[in-house]
Amino acid sequence: MIRALLLVLLCLVAGPLRAADFTVLESGRGADAVVVQGSIEAGDQATLDRIMKRPGGISFVLLDSTGGDLVEALAMGRMIYRGGARTVAGPWAVCASACALIWAAGVERMMSVDAAVGFHTAYSGPEHEASDVGNTMIGTYMRDLNYGWETIDFTVEAAAEDMQWLSFERGWRLGFEPLDLEALLAGQNGGRHLGLPPSTEEERRLGVRLARVFARRHAEGRRVAAEESTIACYDRLSARRTEWIETYCAVLDGLAGR
């Protein structure tokens, strides 16, 4: 059920998003999501609070941000943690700095093999000097999320101009326990990453193009066009058929028939 819902949500978000930093996606299957994209700024926690309190709540928070306001990010993370939502760094997303701290708050944390999740020290001022106050705030926050001291050290170790990028192997060792999004969607290994290779460039281009076409047509409510997208998915990807692609096409098929 979770992988089907994730595929629905990822299909719907594949096209160009609105200018707003927050986009609510309704899956139609009882598990809605919010996309947080762009710089984390003052007032974003209030926006997320309103979204999380909507009827039915939010099950997934999809993140694509290079960071921003630390105080806002920590407040957003606590909100997600209390609400029991899952966090997702999807295909080709960059979730770094303050965004990574939000990602760490998910009741389950998912990332694509093509995503980048990175941490570095808190800093202040135009010279980007390390902030003891900011790092203390991060440490308290991470402890509240039940992470250990080794993990906390990892999150603040890199300099402000540098980044500690999270791998699946390191993530499991540090207690983040990141689920491999592609393995999860394919129903493999309970979402545990087992060294699956990233998509080829050809698969990326074709997958993104098809998903964007489908997302646009689905948003316009054109069922016939949605059925055409499903047929195109099966036909054009048949030469490179994998379990993940078959699942993707099957979800398009299900949406087209709604």
Integer average pLDDT = 76
User: What ranges have pLDDT less than 50 throughout 5 or more consecutive residues?
Assistant: 12-20, 195-199
What shape does the CA trace take? globular
Question: How many structural domains?
Answer: 2
Give the strand line-up of the largest sheet: 1-2-3-4-6-11
Report the helical percentage.
40-55%
> For the record, what is the CATH homologous superfamily label of the largest domain?
2-enoyl-CoA Hydratase, Chain A, domain 1
CATH level 1 class label of the largest domain: Alpha Beta
The major sheet is characterized as: 6 strands, mixed
H/E order of the elements?
Answer: HEEHEHEEHEEEEHHEHEHHHH
Give the helix tally.
11
Radius of gyration: 19 Å
Distance between the termini: 17 Å
Give the helices and strands, then pairings.
Blueprint: H1 2-13, E1 22-25, E2 33-37, H2 44-52, E3 60-64, H3 70-83, E4 86-89, E5 94-96, H4 98-103, E6 109-111, E7 116-119, E8 123-124, E9 129-130, H5 132-144, H6 149-157, E10 164-165, H7 168-174, E11 179-180, H8 181-185, H9 201-219, H10 223-236, H11 243-256
Helix pairs in contact: 1-11, 2-3, 5-6, 9-10, 10-11
